[in-house]
């Protein structure tokens, strides 16, 4: 158990890189404040994207999946892709196309939201809608990668059934959170997206899920 928790202790190199990343993010926020007229007043919503990004990068950096054979690797990849697509869909990164007043159809555009929220890639066509927020894209990719690692661990474990149940419960949290909170598209602006306070819940769920999938407790 102590070995598992030791994985959460950052090394000197990790702390050095972490300090560099935090300084860069602080610079982006200061630059944003000096070049925009941000008046929402809820500073925490400007910090949430960086929590997602930092937690995701740390977990991916410290995770090294090892496949016992090609079959396990293929199964892990398929499960991870399916999981990412489900998260991306319920999280609003893509969906079926629909018309929007004042929005030209079939045109890509960049929405310059605050750092982490933007720059957001938007597309509204007849068949497809995209609202790619950077922090959500990075977060969902990280979760998919951790699910891939979990599948590989389960495939090589004598208690794959128990681990599989554990991982399924933790994996579904972000999906349920996205469905319950009903996040609106990036084109509505930052104020609309955070008006309901749903990202308080989503951020907490994301951090806990990453921690569980990164930990992946096993019985030897």
Averaging pLDDT over every residue, what do you get?
A: 75
Rough outline = flat
Percent helix, as a range, is 55-70%
Number of helices: 8
Give start-end ranges of low-pLDDT stretches.
158-170, 180-196
Structural class: alpha+beta
Main beta sheet strand tally, sense and closure: 4 strands, antiparallel
- Per DSSP, what share of the residues sits in E-state strands of 2 or more residues? 5-15%
Kindly report how far apart the N and C termini lie. Answer: 11 Å
Number of strands: 4
Task: Count up the domains.
Answer: 1
SSE order in H/E notation?
HHHHEEEEHHHH
Based on CA atoms alone, the radius of gyration comes out at: 19 Å
User: Biggest sheet: strands side by side, in what order?
Assistant: 1-4-3-2
Overall description:
With 220 residues, the protein is an alpha+beta fold. The chain is flat, with a radius of gyration of 19 Å. The longest helix is centred in the N-terminal third of the chain and has 24 residues. Helix content is 61%, strand content 8%. The protein has one domain. The relative contact order is 0.15. About 14% of the residues have low confidence. It starts with a helix and ends in a 5-residue tail after the last helix. Strands 1-4-3-2 form a four-stranded antiparallel sheet. Helix 5 packs antiparallel against helix 6 and helix 5 packs parallel to helix 8. A hairpin with a 3-residue loop joins strand 3 and strand 4. The protein has eight helices and four strands, in the order ααααββββαααα.
């Amino acid at each position: 158990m102590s070995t598992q928790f030791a994985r959460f202790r950052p090394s000197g190199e990790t702390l050095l890189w972490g300090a560099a990343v935090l300084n860069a993010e602080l610079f982006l926020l200061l630059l944003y404040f000096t070049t925009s007229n941000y008046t929402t007043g809820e500073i925490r919503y400007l910090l949430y994207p960086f929590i997602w990004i930092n937690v995701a990068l740390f977990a991916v950096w410290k995770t090294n999946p090892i496949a016992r054979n090609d079959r396990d690797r293929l199964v892990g990849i398929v499960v991870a892709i399916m999981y990412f697509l489900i998260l991306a869909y319920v999280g609003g990164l893509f969906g079926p196309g629909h018309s929007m007043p004042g929005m030209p159809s079939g045109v890509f555009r960049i929405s310059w939201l605050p750092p982490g929220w933007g720059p957001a890639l938007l597309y509204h066509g007849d068949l497809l809608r995209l609202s790619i927020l950077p922090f959500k894209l990075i977060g969902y990719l990280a979760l998919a990668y951790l699910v891939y690692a979990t599948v590989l661990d389960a495939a090589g474990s004598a208690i794959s059934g128990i681990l599989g149940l554990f991982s399924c419960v933790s994996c579904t949290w972000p999906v349920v959170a996205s469905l319950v909170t009903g996040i609106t598209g990036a084109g509505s602006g930052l104020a609309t997206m955070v008006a309901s306070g749903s990202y308080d819940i989503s951020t907490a769920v994301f951090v806990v899920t990453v921690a569980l999938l990164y930990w992946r407790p096993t019985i030897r």
